[in-house]
Design brief:
This protein is globular. It contains ten helices and nine strands. The chain has two domains: 65 residues, Arc Repressor Mutant, subunit A; 182 residues, 2-Layer Sandwich (Beta-Lactamase). Helix 2 crosses helix 4 and helix 7 crosses helix 9. A six-stranded antiparallel sheet has the order 6-5-4-9-8-7. Strands 1-3-2 form a three-stranded antiparallel sheet. By secondary structure, it is α+β, with helices and mostly antiparallel strands.
Length: 259
Amino acid sequence: METPARADTLQSLERGLAVLQVFSTENPRLTLSEVARLAGITRATARRILLTLEHLGHVRADGRLFSLTPRVLSLGFAYLSSLNLWDIAQPLMEELVEQTHESCSAATLDLPDIVYVARVPTRRIMAISLGLGSRLPAHATSMGRVLLADLPDEELDAYLATGPFPAFTERTTVDPDDLRAVVTQVRGQGWSMVDQELETGLRSISAPIRGSDGRTVAALNIAAAAPRVGLDDLRDHFLPLMLVTAEQISLAFTRSGKR
């Protein structure tokens, strides 16, 4: 028998969301068979879901190929609007960018990734183009490690059990035990610094943004090019400024009652 919690879920909605999630940068246009395979559902089910999504305006069909439409963004912006992080954080993040002349971002956790919810760029320093909704692997990012540090032990254990993790450079921490040690250090010091683990030539430093209940609701970071900003500069000059900004955003969250 299904557990009560499982019995209360709507399988058709689960499958519909699974279909939306199979589209990506690597798979922007898919056939019916490809959607069914990637979502782990039958062709008949995939067809009904795609036709429903097309009727709602979230998917378009071009011959045999299906692709998402801009209307899908409304789902993500509904989350951003409910979080209200951007309205609260934007002026403070812009001030931090003025002080450091480096890009500043905020992200939340959606394992195994982080998801960007706010960003104030300065110059292009990454090969990856980032915007709201962009996803990066939690294990190789400073924001990811700040967010992992706030997880309950059992949730962190479950995540680490999925390792070893992908290596993006020769510096990437891929061993679960090594990553656990890094996250433990972040828990103790309250911030994280990553040196060229996601991309060669990229360094970043992050701190938690906390809600009114004291839990981490997002992570704030500064990213800089390694040839231009040394580790000592990142820690001694940028970190204090970022910690102040993170505290200011957290205080604004507390005053607004955000959790």
